[in-house]
Every structure is written in C-alpha cells, then in structure tokens.
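Input chain follows. Return structure tokens only.
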Amino acid sequence: MNRKILVLLLISFSVLGLMVYGTQAEGKKVGDNALKGVVQDASGQAVENATVWLIPSSDVDAMAKTPTEIKRDSKNDEPLEDNLAANRDKYQKATTDKKGGFKISNVADGKYFVYVEPSDKEHLPGGDKSNKAISTAEFKGKTIKILVSGNVPADATYVGTSKCLTCHKAYDTEKKTLHKLGIRVAGKDSKLQDASRFPEFDNGLKKLMAGTKFYFYNFDKGRGFDKYMISEKMPSDPASVSFTATFFKDSDGKLKFKTENVKDISDPARTYTVEMTYGGGLYKQRYLYRVGKNLFPFVQYNPNGDDSYNDRTRKPWRDYHADWLFNEQTKKLSDPPIAKSFEKECASCHYTGYTLKHLESGEYIAGAVNDPNGEADIDGDGIPNELNIGCENCHGAGSAHVKAPKGKKASTIVSPGKLSTERSSVVCGQCHSRPQGNLKNDQPVNKDNKMMIPGTSRNDHLTNYTTREDAAKKDHWPDGIHSKAHHQQYTDFIKSKKYRNGNQLLKCSDCHDPHGMTNYKHQMRADVKDVKNSLCTTCHKANADIKKHMEAKTGVAEMGKINCVDCHSTKTMQTGAGLGKGLVKKDGKNYWMNDITSHLFDVPRKDNVGVKGVDPGKAMPIPYTNACGKCHNADNL
C-alpha cells in the first residue's frame, strides 16, 4: 500500500469515527429527559400549532403555601394558569406539528404538569394530562398522548338533554341525580326525571296535601328569609300571630294554600296554587306557588327536623319568606314582590339554557331550552322546557355537536374532564359558591343575564359574570375560612390542598360522578364496600391504616371505628335541619351537627372557631364534638 492511499484511509477512518462519535453524543443528548408526545381531541383529530408547556410542580407547590386570594385578577387561585402567566418566558415548551406531535428536549430532572395551550378556537386549554404531575423518569423514553377538550362555537344553540341521550344512552342515569330532580311538578316526575333513589322525596308534600295549617308569629325584621316563627299549633301568645296559611288538596287535585289575616279578619283571604316543588331528595323541600307569570318559594320542610329542638332552624317546618305575604306595617295580606320571583332570583343555576326578559308589567320571564320531555311549558309555546341542570349546563350548547360529522364531534363540545382543574371546577363552582352577578343577587349572570359558558377560565368568570366574587363574610364562620351557608362547596374547595398542590390537582368530578352512574345520593365515586374511606385512600394510600394515622396525628389511640370522613369531612354548613344534636354537652347544652360537608377537608380545631365562651348551639361544628366525642372528653382535645 503506497503512502498516499494510507493517508486517505486514515483520514476516512477519522472522519467516520467523528461521525459515529457525533451521532452517539447527540443521541445521548436527545435521550436526556426528552418529553415526546402527540396532542389530539377525543375524535382522534390532531391538534396542530398548540403549545405544550411544562409547569414545574415545585412552583405549584410554592403557590399552595400562600393564602388563596378570592378576587378577580388574583395571582394564585388558578394553579396552572397563574403560574404560566407569571413564567411564560421561563418555562420549557414545544409547538405541535401537523400530526399533533411535539418534543421538549433537555428537561431538567423533576416533576411537571403538562399543560396544552391550543392556538385555535376549536379547542380549550389544559388536556387530560394537565392535572397530575409527571416525573422525568416516568416520561423519559416514552410517547404520551394528550387529549384536549373541544369548544362550543359561538353560534351554537341549546338542544335539550333528550337530544343528547339519543346517542349517549349510557348517561340516562343522569335522570336519577338531584341536579335533575331539583325543580319538579308537584308530586310528578317528568320523562327526564327518576326519583326512585329517593323514596321519601315527597314526604313534606304529602303532609301538605293531607291538609296543614301554619301559624306565623313573632315577626323579627332582623332575620333573613325566616322572619317568622312557624307552628302547626296556635302559639302560647296568640297576639303574636300575624297570619295563617292553610294548605289543602283542591277538587282539581292541585295543592293550594289560603292565607288569612289574624290581625284584621276583615282583610279578604287569598288563595295560591303550588305548581312545583324545589328540592326534596335530601335535607329540605320548598314549594313554588304561582302569582301571574311568576313563581315564588314558600315554606321549607326539613325531614330531619324535630319539634323538640329549640333552634328554630332545625324544626320540621321553617318559614321561607312569609314576609312577602303579609305587610307588618299595614297589617294587611299582600302578594309577593315581583322582583323576588324564582325566575329572577334563582332559576339561572337550575334551568338549562337560561334566559331572562323583564316585561313592561314588571314581571320577569325566564326561558329554558325546549325539550319534549321537560318539566313544564314555561314560555307558552306548547313545548315543555328543561327546568333542571342537563347535559348542556356542563358541556355547552349542543347544536353544533349534533350536526357535526363523526370526525369533528369532539371539537364542537366541551369535555370538562379534559380541562385544567381551574376551568373544570368553576363549571360546578359558579353555582356552588355564593357570588353575585349582574342582577345583584346570588346568581352569576353577566350583563346580558347569561350564565358562563363551560370552558371559561376562572378569572374570566369572576371578571365578566360576578359583581361580588364569592360568599359574603356573614356566610362564613368567625374564623373567616370555613363556610357556614349552603351551596358554598367551591368556596371552600379552592382554598383546600386538593385544589392547589404539587402532585395532583383535584377537580369536582374526581370525587363526584355528574352523570349519576353510582347509587350514592351525593353521586360519590366511592367503593360501595367502604363508602366512608375508599375515596380518600384511592390517593392517600400511605394513610390507609387509619388507626396508625390517628395515633400519629393526635397521639390518641382509636377507641372504636373511625373513618376518614369523621374528621376530614366535617359538616360545617347547614341547608336543612342538620343531622341532629352533637354528642358532647357543655353546660347541659348540645353541640349541633350540620348537613353539608366542608370542602376544605381539614380538621377544624377548637381554637379557630371561638368555642370557648360561645353557646354550643352557635359554635361551628368540629370533629371533637362529634366523632371523637363518642369515646373521648372533647374538652381536652
């Protein structure tokens, strides 16, 4: 071999070696914590030009250590979106190609929430992988598929739950949920309702149908909706009675009641027809009577109430705006004020496709989507309306979804399970908190009296649909943290560790099944074999041994069967009569247990509720006076 050929061979081998070395080095670099994946919608369509972000779990964890600010433009009440807004120039990202594919290279060791931000209007932010942090070790060398939610077109209209169930027959169980049973023609299910899970649903209605006379007395203008004491018997002081209301089943089969003036017997009696019931499945039922074009609520039945209780709110019957039917200044009977109608004050959180018109007569006409199987025809067009929460309250108006070809179905409807936790939870939270909207009442409607479209961000909801972002101070216990009034579960939840943490950001539907496919009255996803613990231990496996957990946290050995919910699901809120008297007495008085669970999931301590020196009947319910009090002296806890 001559010298020239030898030189050429050496050069060739050198170049080849460099090429091999370079390829190996690059391969090592590319394989170093690269996140690869594809973004699609549920129809399998690629989502192009979407930005995939890595949000460090440590940043979310740090946010969770700050007090939640309940206000618009808050910087820490949307765990993913607020962190992203503050760090867009710092977080790693990638853009999806035409096939929805992406890759983020050189990811530092750690845990991340993978958040998708679509660039089009057909899809919504988040993705089904956004709410649980994933470590570099878990995604290294793998390809992950992320499904994002579609979005409802701006011109979509409501079609009614019956249309949805034509294709989605498996969700027929929704008819059995309390969401669907809230407003009901008195004593009668619509074809969208099935009250079979609640055999005692109409116990209060039956009592009224059998004939009941109530005395309204001891008017107190300082109280809220129950300014009168109410009794089925003449009170000991007859002079304190203002008027009576006698319920009866009329010859036409309808429930009616007649008001009679006790202060002035010359004042003509008035008779009203009860058309609907409002609630009844669990803790209370109210009765909607008609005046002109509007409905008004009257009288509350508490199935867990007891006449022996001194607390007026915990008796079987409770006044509900009897003050609208009697004028204490003129001492005359009156009709309810038009501005307080159910349509204006309440219906937006119940009706599907809610609208509102204010007539020249002063009356308010609320609209709801036409559905041939709906509860009642409220707009006079001959077709029943859907007067309860249906599919479209959570998924958005369905007309475009119905018309879309199979491959485009998913991009035309909202799937809350594929949203970020903040966007998913606010769908429920808009009504399970107590904000005020454009109507200056507890309804979160915008300037057009419309409810939020599912998929809206929490901040947009607060900015455009509320004038007061959440519950008032009076609706909390003295600690200013725990809710006192009902339908404030979201008010508590967004302050909890479940909503903000560095591991898994829970949303309402993680624990509750909105479609009612479980048999639990509260639609829990719990295991039927262990209802009180199984939901918790699904995630908190380390604390599955409750006895050891209690000893570690309290230093007190368990003396009997204690469940997770006994301490962490304290019923601080009251909607009906509560669940009876507590088990620990102080000065001969009982502490009360309420009926709605705090969604903070903490264990309320005695020292944060001002129990010392407070009448037990007015003290915030805490585990030490309930579950622990069965065996332990709660004064020492």
